[in-house]
Amino acid sequence: MNLNVEHLCVSFSEANIVRDVSLRVNNKQFVGLIGPNGCGKSTLLKSIYKVIKPRQGDVYLSELDVIKSSPRKVAQKLGVVGQFNELSFDFTVREMVAMGRTPHKGMLETDNQEDDSIVTAALHKVNLDTYAGRSYNSLSGGEKQRVILARVLAQQPEFMILDEPTNHLDIKYQLQILNIVKRLDIGILAALHDLTLAAQYCDYLYVMKEGQVAASGKPEDILTKELIGEVFDVACETYRNPVTGALGIAYLETR
Ligand SMILES: Nc1ncnc2c1ncn2[C@@H]1O[C@H](COP(=O)(O)OP(=O)(O)OP(=O)(O)O)[C@@H](O)[C@H]1O
């Protein structure tokens, strides 16, 4: 399933936060969205996954018109790992993950054996098998993040949007989450802050600045010291990591 965003504009009162953004994610492509704090990444993602109504523009998941379709219809195809995962009511970890099955169920339909095994497999995938009975609100930020990913895995989406999915996570779980997501082999659009991880995992990047796409391309083509300097206002040098061969970025000082 691919994602097509065309000329999207989002405004709050007089402020134009997302300004004429168009982007595309092909099926099975892992696309990163990078840019400084406040440039509009979350607002753009929220307007794609229907939390914010854009002032103008179109969003299509393959043939599905996301803006005109019901949330339920979209949730059958699109999984979202958002930025803040606090809850007012408490649920167990297993109940949270089981919610991922909701878009696939009828109004009065309860979970069946297949749903239960999907939930168990999702918990296992994020190493939370032994947490199933724990209260969600008692978990650490990183554990909550993994529960949310498990819920999205249980949803079995055909496309996934992630907003800073590695927030709160130590390096092991940062890599685990990105590996899990990458191996799903579906289209992914993820806002990421760590440019080295973005270079390592993403097939393609969109760079946002002040609500607009400032650059796009393959990580090795666009993550130059000039672009990083211009967009993030830091001095750096890029290099090939001698161990992994991946793109490395050495930050020198704030300009
Ligand atoms: N509901 C709102 N009303 C008014 N302004 C808002 C609203 N939501 C976001 N903004 C503003 O829009 C701008 C973009 O915010 P957004 O959260 O999209 O940035 P971001 O690129 O995701 O930042 P970060 O990297 O810090 O998460 C910010 O200046 C923010 O204060």
TrEMBL record:
The keyword ATP-binding applies. Pfam families: ABC_tran. It comes from Paenibacillus monticola. The keyword Nucleotide-binding applies. Keywords: ATP-binding, Nucleotide-binding, Transport. One of its GO terms (molecular function) is ATP binding. It comes from the Bacteria. This is ATP-binding cassette domain-containing protein. Signal peptide: none annotated. Residues 3-235 form the ABC transporter domain.
